[in-house]
Amino acid sequence: GSVTTGMIGNINIGATRATNVNVGTSATAQSVNLGTGAAAKTVTIGNATGATLVDIDAGTGGFDLDTTGVIAMNATGTGASNLASGGNLTLAAGGFTGNLALISPNTITISNPAGSTIGITAQSSLSLSAGTGAVDINSNFAGVTIDAVTASNFIVSGATSDLTLGARGSTTTF
């Protein structure tokens, strides 16, 4: 059977001793629904007190997070925050009409295991900009290739800045 209640006040289910409060723990393959009615509401899970942990596990069916609003994930701790995938990990903004920004007051590192490639593909243009620092491109074990199919510019615009191209132990060809 089922239990349905329509109350004017709160319904509190809690444990006053060191025991668990369990919902949906049977082996029956049925959904557990929280806050699924059509009214606007806030569904709160957990708290920010002490060592509280919110652990969300999912099987092969995956984890599906949808919203028609904004997603805000904020970590204020001092340890690392990780977003990882055993397969492809895709971050997309606005159905390819918005911007995807990686913002940090420190260094942003994009790395990969040895032998694999990091590919950055843009459907229209790709812009790399540095504010007061430099854009530093290094290849420790192989060459650097920059190719273009139309006329291109490589300009040093500082009044007293030099452009140096050279090859150590080989020939520089123009």
Outline:
The protein is low in regular secondary structure.
What's the helix and strand layout?
Blueprint: no helix or strand
What do you see in this structure?
By secondary structure, this protein is largely without helices or strands. The chain has no helix or strand. The mean pLDDT is 80.
The tally of strands reads: 0
Beta-strand content estimate: under 5%
Low-confidence stretches: none
Mean pLDDT: 80
Helical proportion, percent range: under 10%
Give the class from helix and strand content and strand pairing: little secondary structure
Largest sheet: none
> Helical element count?
0
Large-scale geometry: elongated
Global Rg: 27 Å
Oligomeric state, counting identical vs distinct chains: single chain
Instruction: Compute the separation of the termini in Å.
Output: 83 Å
Name the descriptors.
single chain, 0% helix, little secondary structure, elongated, 0% strand, 174 residues
